[in-house]
Amino acid sequence: MSRRRIIPLILDHPKSLSALARELGMHPRDVETDLKHLLLSVKHTEYEPDIIPSDCRKCGFEFSADKLHKPSKCPKCKGTWISEPLVGLKLKKTLQVSPPL
Ligand SMILES: [Zn+2]
Questions:
Q1: pTM above threshold 0.70
Q2: Spacing, Cα 83 to ligand 1 middle (Å)
Q3: Domain count within the chain
Q4: By residue range, what is the domain housing residue 65?
Q5: What angle do CA 13, 41, 92 make, to 5 degrees?
Q6: In sequence order, what are the residues at sequence separation of 6 or more whose Cβ sits closer than 8 angstroms to the Cβ of residue 62?
């Protein structure tokens, strides 16, 4: 499948791997692979990754944003009540310097 078909699904609308897998009718593991490639390949486009990392709902520990799937355990409190990371894309903001009038 074309990875780019994921783009409109997550543009300005970060989603969890499992939600995206349901929507695409794919296995979450395959969606993760596609997303990883997609996030790398958008580097030179007008899009940029917009990732909301997992956090532990027990102690508030925040996981790093490079993990796209839900961690099984919190390294800090060993809790397993962990939110799923949300993966999205957003349009890059180009800094525009307005010309003096
Ligand atoms: Zn924790």
A1: yes
A2: 11
A3: 1
A4: 3-91
A5: 50
A6: 53, 54, 55, 56
